[in-house]
Amino acid sequence: MDASSFATLHPYWPRDLLIPTYVANNRSMSEILAFLFSVSGVFLLVTWMLSGRKVSGGKLGTWRRLAVCWFAVCGFIHGVIEGWFSLYYDIIPGDQSFLSQLWKEYSKGDSRYVIADNFTVCMETVTAWFWGPFSFWAVYAFLTNKPYRCVLQLIISLGQLYGAVLYFFTEHRDGYAHSELGHPVYFWFYFVFMNALWIVIPLSLIVDSWKQLSAAQTATDNIPLSKSKTK
């Protein structure tokens, strides 16, 4: 059997992509998505409840509590799901572990994940091992009112935004060859919507960090002036 015989024995794009070790999932799309959204929902709910308690600076507002919930979900997705990819990217096409099947399902929207594309492996490894732990650290920092909390928020959000922009831009330069362009689920939901969240939300948090840090610097700059006026 020649190599071309293997070309279409998978659901990925381009259709002539060679993935000789590929084994089809034995779990349905609904099972995989139910796991992803239910576990994310648990992280969101628990963090929402924890963030409703008083911290040393008083209660967190609704916006801030939502931001903390975002970081909790990011910690799970970056650290666990993307962490799995960073460790097992080379065996995912033929592996039937649940998280490998999750990645094979997602790869219907971006097949770079089943061919161990260099950019994807590097980007996801940095995301998993830096932004995953940092996201949980940010949750802790906000819940305990640490003075560096907005610095952490800025660092994480800049990293997420940079990664997401490169993710979209590299695929754009490839002509969106790794997905069925225009497919309502695989292209628009998996590839566009699920990744656009890491542009829109980090961008808003960067603006928030800018305002918070600018206000803190302004207050610091005004301290000598206040002291001189009291003399």
From TrEMBL:
The keyword Transit peptide does not apply. Signal peptide: none annotated. The keyword Transmembrane helix applies. It is found in: Membrane. Residues 63-206 form the EXPERA domain. It holds the Pfam family EBP. The chain crosses the membrane at residues 32-51, 63-81, 126-143, 150-170, 185-207. GO terms for molecular function: C-8 sterol isomerase activity; cholestenol delta-isomerase activity; steroid Delta-isomerase activity. It comes from the Eukaryota. One of its GO terms (biological process) is cholesterol biosynthetic process. It is a multi-pass membrane protein. Belongs to the EBP family. This is EBP cholestenol delta-isomerase.
